[in-house]
Amino acid sequence: MSELRDPIEFELFKNAIFSIADEMALTVFRTTYSGVLKDNMDYSTGFADADGKLVAQGLTIPGHLGSVPTAMQAILRHYREDMHPGDVFIMNDPFDGGMHLPDIFVFKPLYHEGRRVAFACTVCHHSDVGGRVAGSNASDSTEIYAEGLRIAPLKLYDRGVINKTLMTIIEKNVRLPVHVFGDLRAQLAACHIAEKQFAELIAKYGAAKTAGYMKETIDYAERLTRAEIEKLPDGEWSFEDWIDDDGIDYGKPIRLFVKITKTGGQMRVDWTGTAPQVKGAINNTLSYTKAASYTGVRSVLPQGIPNNEGMFRAIEVICPPGTVGNGVLPAAFAARGLTGFRMTDCMFGALAMMLPDRVKAAGDGGNTGISIGGYDADRKPFVYVDFTCGAWGARPWADGLDGNSHMLANMASHSVEVTEAEHPIQLLAYEFVADKAGAGKYRGGVPFRRDYRFLEAEGVLQVRSDRRDHRPFGLYGGSPGQPSENYFNPDGENRVLPGKFTMNVKRGDVLRHVLAGAGGWGDPLERDPAAVLRDVRNELLSAAKARFDYGVVIDTARWTVDPAATEKQRAEIRSARAWREVPKVQWHDPLPQSR
Fold first, then answer.
1. How large is the average pLDDT for residues 358-382?
2. Claim to verify: residue 49 and residue 183 sit in the same structural domain
3. Do 514 and 437 belong together in one domain?
4. Is 86 left (phi over 0), alpha (psi -120 to 50) or beta?
5. How far apart (Å, rounded) are the C-alpha atoms in residues 3 and 10?
6. What is the pLDDT of residues 219-240, one digit of tens each?
7. Are residues 487 and 516 in the same domain?
8. Domain ends where: 505, 527, 549?
9. What are the tens digits of pLDDT across the range 504-525?
10. Are residues 455 and 506 located together in one domain of the fold?
């Protein structure tokens, strides 16, 4: 290592630059207004060098891994020769560096002695940016123009002077300007914190050494990534999965197809063969498809590799324009999260064939997006946005996680008490649902249900969910998870609702949403009977299902396993398999199953 790269000093610098990105994330958390940020924590922070190359990303959402580099390049493409101290840039246009309209980027170039030395980067999901449906993330919009305010890369501040025209346009086009402006101020505060702390780094190391260490941080991540990829087997693996529909063409499944090619220290993730873009708003931008791809690869690499430009260099992502993974005008993107989550699961399917002892089965399908909006008696608007997920697929060494966010999301749940205090909504139920997890030697994560009662006179409900027809896949003999469910007024008419819809609601109406169960891993007949008993006692599994899926007979009077009856039941199940002459490759497929 050269004099510039003293190993101890470099380690201290690296930790300092990562801490700046994390401190930015904490600043957003502490100062934001909207529940989707302070509760769901749907935002990311980052730190880039003078050329806009990502050096560090805060510990927030993997789904934003590919977003900052793409957005930064859009800013530089428009303003590289028109940047000055005091400038702040804003954008959300999916066709010019953004992802979907609720995700607003704020970037601040940082200067030292009149020379640009870095960028502070933030992206936050705003509770509303206008459009036809409150929350601006309806899955049944059919073109970008219906989804809300589209902001091209623009200057929010020009040499320290706020762009009042732009702020007025934003104010007049969103339902909750107080929240939007409050959240924008949180992003600006995070950038200010970054500017202050980065100035302290320059004062300590000097501008030249600081720039050199930022470059080295990127190169360091690339070396680590390539070294770890090098250890993986060379070859080619592919996997296909299906989204139920786009909410417009009901019953028309949407194909996701990925081919992973690994050679030496380089990996290619190719989505050629994925379905054409759809009418509904579940199309991805290429940046979000990249994020899903990076997340899948990162899941099989060791911890400690920085999330930055260096890691991206070792992973090439291809997705043809005009597909559901890379939409072109006039594609709608508002609910693109669904496709991103499912692409991550598709990555798991391919990686499971590459590394069968390191990859989990499919989870609940990502997160379900639920938004409820309207006006109170005084015509004051309200917007509730909730992203709920909670079941990981089974792992080759352990059960799937219960009540845990999808890996691509890394989100928290809304507090029930805060939700009820701030919105005309009452949560009647928030509980695990038995018999939904996919069976296996290791079972899938157990999903939960939430019952939402609407308390205002009228409003609009929007739901984005999936995994109804195409259930979360199990691996290596594990069973798929049970499907998701939506019900309207479950204690009355109990009307079954589709996976994706927008509808009017009135006071007293109740939505019940049940997440899909996660897929299992391995033969259910190899599951430890004590683990089955524990699930039955915890009301995650019924005694009848334990007997049917696992061949485990539970004495519920004494809460014990009946060993003799269990041995007999398992023998009968194995005999029935053989009697039906179902080949093992079909009944308990040693390869991942897409349904």
1. 93
2. yes
3. yes
4. left
5. 11
6. 999 999 999 999 999 999 999 9
7. yes
8. 527
9. 999 999 999 999 999 999 999 9
10. yes
Query: Is residue 325 a contact partner of residue 339, using CB atoms and an 8 Å limit?
Result: yes
SS3 (DSSP) at 256? strand
Token pair of 485 as six digits: 């469910």
Cα separation values, 226 from 140, 213, 263, 269, 357, Å: 41, 20, 10, 15, 21
Amino acid letter at 332? Answer: A
**Which residue range(s) make up the domain with 386?**
360-527
Paired sense of beta strands 88-91 and 103-112, if any = antiparallel
Handedness of CA 160, 166, 167, 168 (dihedral sign): positive
- 559 lies in some domain: yes
Instruction: Let me know if residue 511 belongs to a domain.
Output: yes
Share of the chain above pLDDT 90, in %: 86
Give the model confidence (pLDDT) of 538-572 as tens digits. Answer: 999 999 999 999 999 999 999 999 999 999 999 99
Q: Which of 33-47, 487-501, 562-576 has the lowest mean pLDDT?
A: 33-47
Taking phi over 0 as left and psi of -120 to 50 as alpha, with beta for the rest, 49 belongs to beta
Please write down the HEC assignment for all residues of 57-125: ECCCCHHHCCHHHHHHHHHHHHHCCCCCCCCEEEECCHHHCCCCCCEEEEEEEEEECCEEEEEEEEEEE
Describe the chain by its helix, strand, coil percentages, rounded to 5.
Answer: 35, 25, 45
Provide the total of helices (H) and of strands (E) in the chain, helices listed first: 14, 22
Rounded to 10 degrees, the C-alpha dihedral 496/135/365/448 comes to -60
d(Cα 260, Cα 317) in Å, to the nearest integer? Answer: 9
| Cβ atoms within 10 Å of 261's Cβ, excluding its own | 15
Inform me whether the pLDDT recorded for 589 exceeds 80: no
pLDDT value of residue 5: 63
Write the pLDDT tens digit of every residue in 449-475.
999 999 999 999 999 999 999 999 999
Task: Tell me the C-alpha distance between 160 and 158, whole Å.
Answer: 5
Q: Which of 221, 251, 269 is the last residue of a domain?
A: 221
**CA 389 – CA 412 distance, rounded (Å):** 9
Question: Both 409 and 542 in a single domain?
Answer: no
**In this structure, what DSSP letter does residue 6 have?**
-
Element (H, E) at 496: strand 495-496
Tell which wins on pLDDT, 261 or 418. Answer: 261
Within 8 A by CB and 6+ apart from 550, the residues are 439, 524, 525, 527, 529, 532
In this structure, are 556 and 502 located in the same domain? no
Pick the more confident residue, 593 or 12. Answer: 12
Overall number of domains in the chain:
3
Per-residue DSSP letter, 284: P
Sign, CA dihedral 132-133-136-139, equals negative
